[in-house]
Amino acid sequence: MEAQLLEIIHQNPAWAYLGVFFVLLACGLGLPMPEDITLVAGGYTVYLAQQNGLSQPMLLPMIAVGLVGVMSGDMILFGLGRWMGPRAARIWPLRWIVPPQRMERVYRFFARYGTWTAFIARFAPGLRSPTFLLAGTAGMSFHRFALADGAAAALSVPLWVWLAYHFGAEIDSVKLWLARSRYALFAIVAVVLLVVVMKVVRSRREARQADR
Length: 212
Hints:
Number of domains: 1
Number of strands: 0
Order of helices and strands: HHHHHHHHH
């Protein structure tokens, strides 16, 4: 991999930026590939360039490209959901995840918890794409979604790029840590989702008791 990356950099450093951008864009649109691997590859490319006396690519532009690539895919999915509206509930995979008859509950859920849901979903690869599409379908406002998604991306994207750049000499250790941290993130997201579900169930129960 190192030789291939160096060849790309020598031919045209801009290809490193473009490659990271388009792969991240594809990941955001549903490509079954973890974004963090692409971000790590981007950071490692910067490390290799500096080790070989090349001025490009650079760290901060690579982080900026990562942020733009990540959020572009997210915004396209969200915008698609806004454009389709209720029709999105009739297509796969949303029809399988949320049956059309339950969409009214989804609308209420996003009206109340949409910001935190979008923020948390950014760290959950398997849930990210359908959640962002649902957020648009449910009519979540653009500025709320952009704020939540942007805040989450601002935490994760610079971290992965910087880790691969700073610890480029130990890239195998970085990849091992990446694999382990992914399980930890899944566990954290699962706990948070469980807490949210419990709160929703409790609030509904209290509302029913109040109506009696």
